[in-house]
Amino acid sequence: METQLEKVLSDIVTQQDTVGALLANRQGLCLGAKGDINPNVSGIGMAISDQVAALEPKSAVSAQPEARHPTICLYSGNRRCVIQRNGEITGIIYKQHTAAPASD
Amino acid sequence: MEYVHSVWNYIASVCSCMHCAEDVGAQNIEPNERTHLLVDPVNHSPALRRSNSDGLSNDYSHSLPKKDDQTALSRLVQNTAINMINVGAMDCHSLEHQEYTDRIKIYSQRLHQQWNNVQHPNITMKGLLKDVPNHQFYITKPISAKDTLQMKLFIEKALIGVNQIQIDHKEAVVVPFQIP
């Protein structure tokens, strides 16, 4: 049933610097979470993506998918939180900065 | 006729008095932004004076039955004269060029003073991170391409995963009620 989703989440948390990942539905309810992330932040993440999308309402009808689904990056200490919404679902990834800062 | 003359003299004296008062007032009060450009234009209008004399002569030189018509007509003429402003007849308000520029200067100065006194509540700080200390540091921080790429792949895979979610029901979804 949700094995595919579980597998995707497990894959993502094994990637470099990634400490946690979460998926939220349109209502901000948690569809699944893996790693060091609180499932309760799903609503907040969804709300943030909503608010940011409202900053540029014109991009909602843009042809480019990058413009339609803005990526939000929140920096906090040596951690960062990446949020992106794609229609029905919102993804949240927590990343930890371990190595020297990459130039890109 | 004697009576008419006396009345006319009285009106003329009143008019001249008014003129005097006006002139004195106009001279004493320094012109400012609230001074009317046309000082009592009705009295300066020659049409009204004419109509006044017309009205008087008409009132007494015509026969009685026509009096109502005449008064109505003369009132009409008078009203028209009142509504008319003869700008050309008023030459006492021509300002010197120097005076114009002086006034422009004074008025703009006053306007500036008033504008500075007014509280402008709408002017607020624009920008999301103005109240955050060291916001320049965070603004210059780039979103790394790795992060966006990782997120893009994550979301794409997750969408596929979410779409594959379906309910495998082992029992009957619709349960019949035990209706006797």
UniProtKB/TrEMBL annotation, chain A:
Keywords: Cytoplasm, Lysosome. One of its GO terms (molecular function) is guanyl-nucleotide exchange factor activity. One of its GO terms (biological process) is negative regulation of apoptotic process. Transmembrane segments: none annotated. It comes from the Eukaryota. It holds the Pfam family LAMTOR5. GO terms for cellular component: lysosome; Ragulator complex. InterPro entries: LAMTOR5. It is found in: Cytoplasm; Lysosome. Coiled coil: none annotated. Belongs to the LAMTOR5 family. This is Late endosomal/lysosomal adaptor and MAPK and MTOR activator 5. It comes from Drosophila madeirensis (Fruit fly).
TrEMBL record, chain B:
Residues 44-66 are annotated as: Disordered. The keyword Flavoprotein does not apply. Keywords: Endosome, Lipoprotein, Lysosome, Membrane, Myristate, Palmitate. It is found in: Late endosome membrane; Lysosome membrane. One of its GO terms (molecular function) is guanyl-nucleotide exchange factor activity. InterPro entries: LAMTOR1/MEH1. GO terms for biological process: cellular response to amino acid stimulus; cholesterol homeostasis; endosomal transport; lysosome organization; positive regulation of MAPK cascade; positive regulation of TOR signaling; regulation of receptor recycling. The keyword Membrane applies. PANTHER family: RAGULATOR COMPLEX PROTEIN LAMTOR1. This is Ragulator complex protein LAMTOR1. It comes from Drosophila madeirensis (Fruit fly).
